Amino acid sequence: TEMENKVLLSFAFYSTILILKMYVVAIITGQVRLRKKAFANPEDALRNGGLQYYREDPDVERCRRAHRNDMENIFPFLFLGAIYSLLEPSPAVARVHFFIFCAGRIVHTVAYLLRLKAPTRSVAYSVAQLPCFSMALQILLAAAPYW
Prior knowledge:
Layout: H1 6-36, H2 42-47, H3 58-86, H4 91-114, H5 120-143
């Protein structure tokens, strides 16, 4: 069964870590909104002090960019990792792919939110892309005879 598939279990583990990380970034964004009193909707601003707080804030926007970047990268990883898991790769090799992506995304988020010195964030982004390109290439090679 699928639950006996070590690759799929590893993928499920790292994917869940990444989804939880995305929830944490969303919570941080909300907390920064409250602290900075910068609300995206007039009804939220009215509830928290008045329409003058219906505005943008650079710190909130930084959190939002980090979250958007996660969506642009983690969602494709979820697709690639799921299909790659079905190709029956070596469990150890697959685990390395998933770990590198997960670690890279965590470092990317930390670098983004804490404003770490460049090029920390871009290096983390680039490192996390390597396993995605590897998985995509392996999927294409496996599927090529059937196109």
